[in-house]
Design a protein that fits this description.
about 260 residues, alpha+beta, nine-stranded antiparallel sheet, two-stranded antiparallel sheet, 9 helices, 11 strands, DUF6928
Length: about 260
Amino acid sequence: MSARAVTLWFIDSDDPIAQLSADPLNDVVAAQKLAATIYGDRVLVPVADTDLATAAAAADAHVYAGWYGRLSVLCCSLFDTTEPSTLTRTLASIRPSSAATLLVTDPDRSAGAFARWEHGELRRSFAADPVTIFEDSGLPYPFERPFWAGEHPLRYAPGVPAEPLALPFHPQELAEQANREWLGFRFTTPLADTDLDPARIPVTAFAIHPADYVPAEEDWARYQGNLTVSGSAVADDGADAASGSPAPPPKRRGRLARYFGFG
């Protein structure tokens, strides 16, 4: 099954793939400041250090962030959209950068989206499920050609007839290919031999508290006491309920998700 992911990258590195290949260290303080820019006066408290693969699969209400100098990433549900163009003004308020890239994959809806901004201007965005295009802006990149040419066809469940109006590819697969081209990896396994492993990219999970919350020594002790969490979601520390932002209910698997897939 394809992986779930919502990631927003800010890129000032001349070679982000090479930088990620070198096992970058996460600056937790800078990552916290980055994440805080999207939550106004809310108080963000570090909960655990984990990895990007675990963060992408998490269904909790934490925000995950990683800061690697000229490269940084945010992973949270606020950027889960089928209209990437609506984020254009938001990006400049988070971290002005030479480039920014968005990846959204939702297996429950069989939806995929990707976008790239350069110096604050949207260059390309695409969002769709197998039968509906929600957004298609800008000129396609060369890596998209094989998809539109039918070289990566949809896979149908046994006994399901081909949908005559379906796209010639799975939107999630195209979205992950965009991420692979720009950052060197995808989330859906098995990874290619040339892929970086997102489980080797460190990020920190932050709990979101109300503006009047005062971090206590217990918060820091809890964070220091947490071993690096990998392969499973970060445990709920009660901050979501306190902030008035309960975790969303689990999504029901839609018709499209049952019908379509990719390898």
